[in-house]
Design brief:
three-stranded parallel β-sheet, globular, alpha/beta, 3 helices, about 70 residues
Length: about 70
């Protein structure tokens, strides 16, 4: 997970493909970087918005305003 943190700190755009948002350890790191980098762009490619994705963003206290979800 340390490598994941390093990569997240070095990028300004993140593509999330096929991730269920069910892993709290990964979610916490994504939410942390979304809070730290308000210019971070998040692209999510998913079949649909499910309750886990909805809960992830409902619980996020972030500065990041660039979240795009593709179906």
């Amino acid at each position: 997970l340390n490598l994941f943190d390093e990569v997240l700190s070095d990028i300004d755009e993140l593509f999330i493909i096929g991730y269920s948002f069910a892993d709290k350890h990964i979610n916490n790191r994504i939410q942390k970087i979304m809070y730290q980098k308000e210019n971070m762009k998040i692209h999510i490619i998913a079949k649909a918005i499910n309750s886990t994705i909805d809960k992830f963003f409902s619980n996020s206290n972030t500065k990041c305003a660039h979240v795009i979800i593709y179906f």
